[in-house]
Write a structure and sequence with these properties.
38% of the residues lie in helices and 19% in strands. The radius of gyration is 12 Å and the shape is globular. The termini are far apart. It contains three helices and three strands; from the N terminus they run βααβαβ. It has a three-stranded parallel β-sheet with strand order 1-2-3, covered by helices on one side. α2 (38-45) packs parallel to α3. The protein is an alpha/beta fold.
Length: 89
């Protein structure tokens, strides 16, 4: 079995929600029409058909309240997919 493609989201490196959307869109090859909102993220994550792991590294020093919504979408999408995995650290 092929090793999963890995994307690391470091909360401390992301200043605003748009940074998360841009990083995931680029790393996961989302289509040009990606809407850059949580519903669109959930839809695109549900269309991943190759082994992929998203590693979420939380910032204990300066957590961002808006980041929780991204973690929820990623974790929920991973639970529904046999191709997508999520690790929280």
């Amino acid at each position: 079995m092929a090793r999963p493609y890995k994307v690391v989201l470091r909360e401390k490196d992301l200043s605003m929600p748009q940074d998360v959307h841009e990083l995931l869109a680029q790393e996961l090859g989302f289509p040009d029409y990606y809407g850059a909102n949580l519903d669109a993220l959930e839809e695109c994550l549900g269309e991943i058909y190759h082994p992929t792991r998203i590693v979420v590294r939380r910032d204990d020093q300066e957590p961002k309240p808006w980041f929780d919504a991204f973690v929820d979408v990623i974790r929920d999408s991973a639970q529904r997919s046999c191709y997508l995995g999520c690790s929280l650290r």
